[in-house]
Give the backbone structure.
Amino acid sequence: MEGYPKTMLEFERQFSTEEACQEYLYQMRWPQGFVCPCCGHRKFWSSKIDRYRCSHCEYRASIKAGTIFQDSRIPLRVWFQAIWQVVSQKHGISALGLQRVLGLNRYETTWNILHRLRTAMVRPGRDRLIGPVQVDEIYIGGSHPGKRGRGATDKTLVLVAVEDRDGYPGRIRLHKVKDASGDSLIPAIKESVESAAEVRTDGWQGYNRLSRSGYSRTIIRETAEVGKNLLPLANRVTSLLKRWLLGTHQGKPSPSHLDYYLDEFVFRFNRRTSRSRGLLFYRLVEQAVNTAPVKDQDIRGGRD
Ligand SMILES: [Zn+2]
């Protein structure tokens, strides 16, 4: 692997042509050289029409097939520029902002790119958090402060899980949950936190079944009001998340799109200490290659 660009200038130099972008994907996909997806043969013929045609079974392999770039008519150059924009700006970029930067005519195109990239941000088979982990729930969205607790209908409840590294936040997971019952919270925790880990919570009864699920639960705050009185690390993550939603995305993503924003925030947060933005670029392209294609109709909730 020839590595990743470290600056805007390097990025532009490295990915100035469609061929250069294809070559980069080729390296990610077949780091040990071409492997036919159909028969495993390692040699291919190349022509203008079929770049990778298996010399054994004649299968027409495509560098984009099976990745989020499959069926996309957008040139890879534009995809790469979008990825660079998304990772190189500290707080990310809105669909409208990206449309302006890339000079795309249609807002829908930009929107589709961004949502596919967000899908790629959730690393397939990613690791779960390691204990001790602080877990709490927060409310996102909603137009008025209104009632708290289970009566808050226009708000979305989100489970926040943060690795507690001697009082400093490690990696995080965010998980939309239907309500604050044990039936909603415990499965979300199982998906986010390694089994048998120590989970630190408040006194909320929704967490009572944690120990039965194999976790060791420590109550570090007795109060148990849902969505309030956050544990310190969960509190810190929550305020950053809210500020980010407000700053980059004008504060009110519709509940059906919230998953995507949460995924992007987690991607950014967990890589906040990354040495360079270029490494984030590398990671996101890598994950895009390893993420199954998304169909338009599968993008939850349709357009913004
Ligand atoms: Zn073959």
